[in-house]
Amino acid sequence: MNNTGWIEPFSVQGQHALVEPLAERHHADLSEAAADGALHRLWYTTVPKPEDVPAEIERRLALRYAGSMFPFAVIERASGRAVGMTTYMNIDAANRRLEIGSTWYRKSVQRTPLNTECKLLLLQHAFEELGCICVEFRTHFLNAQSRRAIERLGAKLDGILRSNMIMANGTVRDTAVYSIIQSEWPTVKTNLKWRLEQ
Q1: How far apart are the C-alpha atoms of 179 and 181, rounded to whole Å?
Q2: E strands along the chain, which residues?
């Protein structure tokens, strides 16, 4: 089984979010989203500058065609506008594993139900449609906000990959690796649905 054919294009929708395949038509919304809160200035993240969003879309689409990433735009249903990006990445079809990552949202929708619902929709597709045995999440060791969000999903820390990546600013990233495995999915799903109802 190769990576390219394992994940067919799909969209998933909840009450707050619509997750659909990333396309060039999303660039205006996403450029505006990247400007909200000047997220690219956070040194420990890799959010594009507003003017670099078209190139980032192009980069992610090239990785999609190469079979190593499936990128999505996250649409806020209330406004109908793209408010962020996320991906299935490090796709390993033979071992039915992938990572949900390279995710960012405009400042105004952070800490709303949108991210929780987006993760629920993508995890549900991964475990129930693709038959994944494991879904990973990775983040900078020092990105406390991201680590807390991943832990709230119910993912468990697998470990820290030390000196794992050289960042654009030249600093070296230690990467915190989390995962949810197939046997944990029913409990994680129940918890995420409960949290969305609160």
Answers
A1: 6
A2: 12-13, 17-21, 69-76, 81-92, 97-105, 134-140, 156-166, 172-181
- Count: domains in the chain: 1
Q: Which of 133, 153, 135, 161 is CA-nearest to residue 196?
A: 153
**SS3 readout for 12-55:** EECCCEEEEECCHHHHHHHHHHHHCCCHHHCCCCCCCCHHHHHH
The one-digit pLDDT tens for each residue of the chain (198 residues) are 566 679 999 999 999 999 999 999 999 999 999 988 766 666 556 788 889 999 999 999 999 999 999 999 999 999 999 999 999 999 999 999 999 999 999 988 888 899 899 999 999 999 999 999 999 999 999 999 889 989 999 999 999 999 999 988 899 999 999 999 999 999 999 999 999 998
CATH number at residue 108: 3.40.630.30
Domain range for 105 is 7-197
CA gap 152, 146 in Å, rounded: 10
- The pTM assigned to this predicted structure is 0.93
